[in-house]
Design brief:
This protein starts with a helix and ends in a 13-residue tail after the last strand. Strand 2, helix 4 and strand 3 form a beta-alpha-beta unit. The chain is globular, with a radius of gyration of 17 Å. Strands 3-2-1-4-5-9-8 form a seven-stranded mixed beta sheet. Strands 6-7 form a two-stranded antiparallel sheet. The chain has 237 residues and is an alpha/beta fold. It has a domain of 161 residues: Rossmann fold, CATH 3.40.50.
């Protein structure tokens, strides 16, 4: 449990620098989210970082909440957003009441979690019945990790960031019904960085996003169904 709750040193890690010259990938992800989002009440973004997607989500919702643990990230995010409530918290215990949110986003976060199921339990708790949950995860269809059956530590990044990998079906639970799956990352490479000024190229990535199994990043859209499910989620793997 201690490993599952361990938090890397986010204060020495400038996540915004990871997105320098990645305008094509940034726009592709936002366009995919736009295709899945309908104007609604309240949304929650978990691990929102420096607010890259938060500012994009604001026009769609009457209430936007971003949760992040890093003070440095929060400071940067506060310069980009207008209406969002920023909450400093780790995400294994989300500091909101049951059935609060219509949409929940967890983008580029799940592969840093030792036990994603702890967080998924919290997502279930704070999501309304019928809420939409959107999660992104690395694609393991190809490569040496494609045989994994559970969440497995596969490496370590900057400032102690642990990197985990799991099959995509690992994130489907008794209360999360997968509705759609799309892929991005066609230009998340050295070629995309060199061509970053040609932002129209993101349309090519989006056009072939249904071929998710060929893309390095997978976006999954779920609908929350609490009917008949175990309140304690004892059926989790």
């Amino acid at each position: 449990m201690a490993e599952a709750l361990a938090i890397p040193d986010y204060e020495r890690y400038d996540y915004s620098r990871e997105w320098e010259n990645k305008q094509i990938e940034d726009l592709a992800e936002k366009r995919i989210l736009a295709s899945w989002v309908k104007p609604s009440g309240a949304c929650l973004e978990l691990g929102g970082g420096f607010g890259r997607l938060t500012s994009f989500l604001e026009p769609y919702f009457s209430r936007v909440v971003m949760v992040d643990f890093s003070r440095a990230n929060i400071q940067k995010a506060s310069r980009r957003i207008k209406i969002t409530e920023i909450v400093r918290s780790e995400i294994h215990e989300i500091p909101f009441k049951d059935e609060t949110f219509d949409y929940i986003f967890m983008i580029r976060v799940v592969h840093h979690l030792a036990d994603p199921l702890i967080v998924l339990k919290e997502i279930r708790r704070v999501a309304k019945q019928g809420a939409t949950v959107i999660i992104s995860a690395p694609n393991l269809t190809f490569g040496k990790y494609h045989r994994l059956r559970s969440n497995t530590l596969v490496g370590e990044g900057k400032c102690g960031h642990k990197i985990y990998a799991a099959p995509l079906k690992y994130y489907s639970t008794e209360f999360l019904k997968e509705e759609a799956r799309l892929g991005t990352g066609m230009f998340e490479n050295s070629i995309g960085i060199k061509l970053h000024r040609f932002t129209f190229l993101h349309l090519a990535d989006v056009l072939i996003s249904p071929l998710w199994y060929l893309k390095p990043n997978i976006f999954m859209k779920y609908t929350v169904s609490k009917n008949g499910s175990n309140p304690d989620l004892m059926n989790f793997r």
